[in-house]
Amino acid sequence: MKITELWRYPVKSMAGEKLKRVRVGPLGFEGDRVVHVEDTDGRVITSRSYPRFLGHRGTLGARGAVLVDGRPWESPEVAAEVADIGGRSAKLVRYDGAERFDVLPLLVATDGAIAAFGHDGRRLRPNIVVGGVEGLTETEWPGACLRIGKVLIGVQDLRLRCIMTSFDPDTLAQDRDITRDIYRRFGGKLALNCFVIEGGTLAVGDDVQLVRGRACTEAAELGA
């Protein structure tokens, strides 16, 4: 098995950036989901309710600055567009804490599950896509670890999917049947909620080894 894709989403609920290499720390990919949209009451606003956010792209600049469609995220132009989508009170906020993730810092998908899904894998918004995986073998991975060079990733469970999967990542056209199909065929779950045990650097093409049982447990205890 090998890494075939790496994705980072500097702005939560916006489109992300495809990477060749990325640094991984205790809270996942450096720069992932460090900016989000919230209202005046501090509630996070996402593309589940405002899918037009998916039409904008978050990236990191050369010095690690968060950009929206190539512009600084704090710029008046970006602020106006965010308010136009989420309402007058909607604004971008930077927050680096663990609570910025819906579940866990990493989402890992496999090429076998994406093929079974039958649609663009970007709908699943993975951080890592692992290639060379047969069918729905990923359903057997919870409780195991993924060793990728010096990086060790713990697999917690399968991700329960939401309405965001119904939106085409390019056109934003919605097809609710795609989300319904995930529930009908896969029990509502695709891709894996994961956490970092040992950090390091990941690159496309890196070998991925599945570690099970005591070896995974011991590695997790050492990394804790």
List the helices and strands and how they pair.
Elements: E1 2-8, E2 17-19, E3 21-25, E4 28-29, E5 35-38, E6 44-45, E7 58-60, E8 66-68, E9 71-72, H1 76-86, E10 91-94, E11 106-110, H2 111-117, E12 128-131, E13 145-148, E14 151-160, H3 176-186, E15 189-198, E16 200-203, E17 209-211, H4 213-223
Parallel strand pairs: 11-12
Antiparallel strand pairs: 1-2, 1-12, 3-4, 3-16, 5-6, 5-10, 7-8, 8-9, 11-15, 13-14, 13-17, 14-15
Going by CATH, what is the homologous superfamily of the largest domain? PK beta-barrel domain-like
Give a count of the beta strands, DSSP E runs of length 2 or more.
Answer: 17
Give the overall shape.
globular
Radius of gyration: 17 Å
Beta-strand percentage range: 25-35%
Produce a short descriptive summary.
With 224 residues, the protein is of the alpha+beta class. The chain has helices spanning 76-86, 111-117, 176-186, 213-223; strands at 2-8, 17-19, 21-25, 28-29, 35-38, 44-45, 58-60, 66-68, 71-72, 91-94, 106-110, 128-131, 145-148, 151-160, 189-198, 200-203, 209-211.
List keywords for this structure.
alpha+beta, M1 Pyruvate Kinase, Domain 3, 2 domains, 8-stranded mixed beta sheet, 3-stranded antiparallel beta sheet
